[in-house]
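Task: encode each sequence below as structure tokens.

Item 1
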Amino acid sequence: MSNLGKRAPIDQLKWWKKLKDHRYIRVILFIVLGIVMYLTMLSNIIPTTLNVNLGSYAQQDIRAPITIENKAATEEKKKLAAEAIEPQYTNNKAFAQKQVKKINDIFDIISQINEDPEVESIQLEEQTHSELDNHMQIENTVGSLEEKLENLRAIISSQTSDDLSDETLLTFLEADESELEIVRETTTNAIYNVMSEEIRINDVLEAKDLVETKIVISTVSPKLYQAMLEMARFAITANYIYDDEATEFARKKAIEAVEPVMIREGQLIVEEGEVITSTIYSQLAILGLLDDQVNIYPFIGLGILVLLLVLMLAYYLSDAKTSLRNNNSHLLMYVLIFTVTVLIMKISSYTHNLHFQGFTLIAPVAVGSMLMTMLIHQRVALFTSMVFSIIASFIFNAEATGVVNYTFGIYVFFSSVAGVFFLSKSNRVSRILQAGLFVSIVNILTIITLLMLRNAQYGWMEVGSNIGFGFLSGFLAAVLTLGLLPFFEAGFGILSTMKLIELSNPNHPLLRKILVETPGTYHHSVIVANLSEAACEAIGGNGLLARVGSYYHDLGKTKRPHFFIENQMKMENPHDKLSPQLSKTIIISHPYDGAELLKNYKMPKEIIDIAEQHHGTSLLKFFYHKANQESSKPIPEKDFRYPGPKAQTIEAAVVGISDCVEAAVRSMAKPTPEKIETLVKKIITDRLEDGQFDECDLTLKQLNIVAMSICETLKGTFHSRIEYPEDVKKKGDSQE
């Protein structure tokens, strides 16, 4: 066919052919991906600064872009809380005992001075508050009262000596021992009773007055009674004292109870026309809104975010079982789709300047996930949808008070995922517009949900505009997908549904070549296509790819058509005159002749692989046995096996099974369902035992499903024909 030679193959980018298998090309592509993300989000994270001065008027309403603690205000609040705590006091019960002991010590000294004029020494302890000096010694004899008084004052502390009058001390020195004992007990009891109660510093005088009422005694002289009162009043002191630890603890608890003073995201800092006070100015400084502040943290934060996203994508795309794992051409296509989608979002984000309520919702954010579903894989599209939603949260933050617009991120996520879910069931081109409608419906539901969650009062016009723009988003995404799909398919040789449908057209030059030059092979290929498509769809494979691959799998037979039995048309079989070795060479060459012709015509690699792999490394049994019969020594099987490779995909394996089954069933004299089923299972078992499925992902369960599917299809093809009366009559006439 001269038409084949006239069509020049479309040269792909030569530079990319040289570089696509380079070891560092994947790293470069991911770096490019990171640069695209960083640059598109950069303008959205640059801190907004204001040219304001202390005492000037605000030119606009200023709201907090972030939530942050006002540490200065918090510290001031803590300081006020601590100052509000009053000093803590404690009622020290031991003070009563100490004061009673002090009075007892004084009476003991008086008794000793009266009884023993030669007292050698009395050791006094300041730590017990006995009011006695350490290691004082009474010298000489008691002598006169004045001498006793002098000795007494020398022994007791100066403070006690000053507080007690000479008259009181002399009165105690003059009293006899029995009176002194009564005075001691009465006075100490009264002191203990009064000081057992709480006595504040301001209440000491009142307590001194109270102790006088506690001393009720009639057996002593009035002079001694007055001395008792003075001694009791002297002993009364404050026992409700300042507690430093308790005070500090109370202040600490008050400080801990203080809530941090927060400047909330969206909080109005200053209204338009309001004077910028020192408080407002400090708040603006805390928020980083002053133009004299340089903050590099947002840029570093964005870099870390982009690094995390790129690492996530690199790990997932390298681990997922898709073409992106080892095909750098497809990875380049992924990067381009990603870039186009992000640029579309970036351009759409500027629509907020039009000041139409919800106009940014018109962004066709689902176009990226839909293209990836059609051209790469739905799992990749689903994972990337999450990344798109994160990026959109930053790109569409113009109407948000903070850096991240979580609401729009949720909207983008559901919109993108909707396209993936709808197209994952069937990615035929005709479903793209239907997918756009489905995305629009999901957009509307998402918008309604988000509006309700905000719990705000929206008018019908606002709700209607949001819903309308959300609906248009899905429609635009479908239109853009339809428009961009052919460019990616042509540029990267992607075998999409549209391309497969185009290749299945009977008017395709190669199919015309098969039909005209090898009509028997064409008929055989059509039946194989029916068998393989049904079987592949039954096990979750690409049925359309199997069908189209079946159409072209025996293209190599057009090189020597009459050496294949289906094209001999009752002519003499040329193999009868050839040696088995030569016949083997002719038969074995047809998959590779077909693959070469397909390559010359720039057919998709998947179609070429099916043509090259459908026989795997199987054995040409007929010519092998014939050669052994003619040879005097055994011939190795490898000499009569196809060179391979074995089937690498389930589509190539199923086409190989269907090809073998169709040829075997066609040679059967009277095929019945039972015979067909036995034959199909035997062929699959033989190929399984021969290791023809070792390099593809077919399981035993799937092979059983393939066998049942092929049997069902063959039963419809080779069904028994009903004899009509005209046929019976003609048959009888012919017999006569």
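Item 2
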Amino acid sequence: MMYLKGIVLVLLFLFSVELNAQVKRDLLGTNFSRKMISTVIEEKGEWQPFPGYLERDAWEALPSDLRRQAIEQGEAFLDFEWPTVKATQYLEFTRTGDRSKDAAVMSQRKKALFSLAMAELLEGKGRFIDDLINGVFALCEQTYWGSSAHFYLYGFDDNISNPTTVVPDLDDPIIDLVVGDVGADLAWIYHFFKDAFDEVSPVIAKRLKHEIYQKVLIPYYERNDFWWITGWDEGRVNNWTPWCSYNMLVTILLMEEDQQRKLDGIHKAMQSVDLFINSYPDDGACSEGPGYWSHAGGKMFDFLEVLDMYSSGEMTIYDQSIVREMGRYIYRAYISEGNYYLNFADSQLKINHNAGRIFRFGKAIEDETMQQFGAFLLAQQAHGGLIRESRIGEALLNLFYLREWEKTPANEPLIGTHYFENLEAFIAREKEGTTDGFYLAAKGGNNNEQHNHNDVGSFMLYYNGNPVFLDVGVGTYTRETFSRDRYSIWTMQSNFHNLPLVNGMGQKAGRQFEAMNTMVSKRGNTYAFETDISRAYPQEANVKKWLRTYKLKKGKGVTISDDFVLDSRDGDTSLHLMTGLECQESKPGSILIKAKDADLELNYNPKQLKFTLEPIPIDDPRLSSNHGEKIYRLAFTYLPTDLSDEIQMEIKPK
């Protein structure tokens, strides 16, 4: 099979992340030897992080509204007809590029399993046991618990969208993100309900244990060719590593009885998470975007939290600077409204994070701002009266380890300014501590970042907490999303970011297409971000210099300046701005923008620029859930024939 070689070549193209100049940290391996792990295993024995199923007083002490809601959600799946993933649904991915068909069925199965398990834990009367057994058997009889989009783990020809195996292979079990999620949920079900299942028949739990071993544990113990375990090209990894490693750790602690295999499995998972931590820059920024933080830095925390709980605090690295910075990233990237974040890379415009994770992460690193942010989100999400659909272990942590949040002040982290030096991402808020006025964010970086969009030099602008000029975000994932055809998708192209089109050309993907001489400054009441984006364009664009500068002047507005030098004029040069707001030219050189609770005006030189408003219909369900039926691109075509010039736009309240 063509495992490692092919995976290395294509994943380097897709997700390559620089191993920064810092020395490898290896925080887990350095601080916790195999001998220490072995001692912890001997001392702690079986992992019991939550009350047992029969310890009814603990479950009944949980808020009554929450228990009622969870039980009602479980009742919706009584007598549930467990849908089957058809072979042709798997084949849709390689035939048409549609990865949603098998994913939709698995989503129903996972939701039903979660809902039934939580309902039975919170009610404890046995009403949901038969349907849980049906779910267990349905999943045990399923060849593969993962996604068709990840069949490349079997091997592929030239491109990961061309896997060598197009339907699941029982004799070659692979572990992707979804396999790990399902395996961990089933391990929790085994942990809580084994005795209840045995009262019906000992075959049920025996079968479940067998399938968890065959589909998850044995492949994990025996194989190192899954790239998320050992990385590719000198240990390069992404969010898969902490996400999968967390699932492996949970499954091992709940299921594994052999002490040596438990030791080997825990140590192996720790080595992988070390690779992930090593890959991060000192500023802790998630280059995959805040939408992926929950699966990257957030999943790293989930892993560390389980180690902490299992070892009773003997195995923690929360005091390490990089861990703290990776946590703080999420509130530094927060904008407003409980769900607007700095959505560079593959992030949607609106993101709903697991508030409990943010609160617990903040508590672990002793960061009051992060704890208060978690408390703010928990209140918004009605925690105590509602269980958000999740994985079983994560939901239980939110139930049993969040008793302090109501005593914590609930505050939005409306920080005034921050610069992620390694990511080259800058934010400035007109009034710290409030959403009033403008919020500006801009980035430099390069076009080989994880989950990259060609967006070197792009920006986003908010007014009174609502988006004005935005990053459109990412649409529904397809076969093309993670292939060499990624940049055929319009949302990935610089032409649909807040960037120039130079001589008819947009930016290109690759590490060499980067910002230069990025600088941030503050003078008086003015914040400025400046970067030369000329190198982000191909040589054929004939751009020698393109210095883009953003300035936020408190009480005055925002200016965008472009100081450029071209070697020749071979095509149209224009400036693009993306918005979801209604716009109209009120007079030459002035555009009225209808913001949510205010009118803004954008002023420019009509002798330099010709304005065109371009509606863009939205037919992708993931995008339309954020933007509605259409958005707009504001195009400003450069009129003179000069090879060098300076262009300036100003945005201010009308």
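Check on item 2: The CA atoms of residues 466 and 596 lie 7 Å apart. The first helix runs from residue 3 to 15.
End of task.
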